[in-house]
Design brief:
Layout: H1 10-30, H2 45-58, H3 63-75, H4 93-105
Length: about 110
């Protein structure tokens, strides 16, 4: 096998460097003064259902957590009535049926 030689123009290297600097600047702007970053973590709806079920078995599931969980689940519901396995994805039957089952059990 022969190696593929690619040549890059000065303009393309400069464009990559500019993009990296913009990304770096953006991330630095999001950094907390103490030096860390924090972002909302998106988890799929089944992970939330599993977590709420764990809290129920553990005995620490209260009405506030139930209401917050159900609100989040309903906020994630897609226009066709289902739920997606991942952000931006299509409705998925296992995810949708698992979510509906949890909402009904609550």
């Amino acid at each position: 096998m022969s190696a593929v030689n690619q040549t890059y123009t000065i303009q393309s290297v400069a464009a990559v460097e500019q993009t990296l600097k913009k990304a770096q600047s953006h991330l630095i702007g999001l950094q907390h003064p103490e030096g860390y970053w924090s972002f909302e973590l998106f988890v799929d709806v089944l992970t939330l259902c599993d977590y709420l079920l764990y809290l129920k078995w553990h005995g620490s599931l209260d009405s506030k957590k139930i209401n917050q969980g159900v609100k989040h689940l309903l906020d994630q519901q897609l226009p066709d009535g289902g739920w997606s396995l991942y952000y931006g994805g299509p409705s998925e039957i296992n995810t949708s049926s698992g979510t509906v089952a949890w909402i009904r059990k609550k």
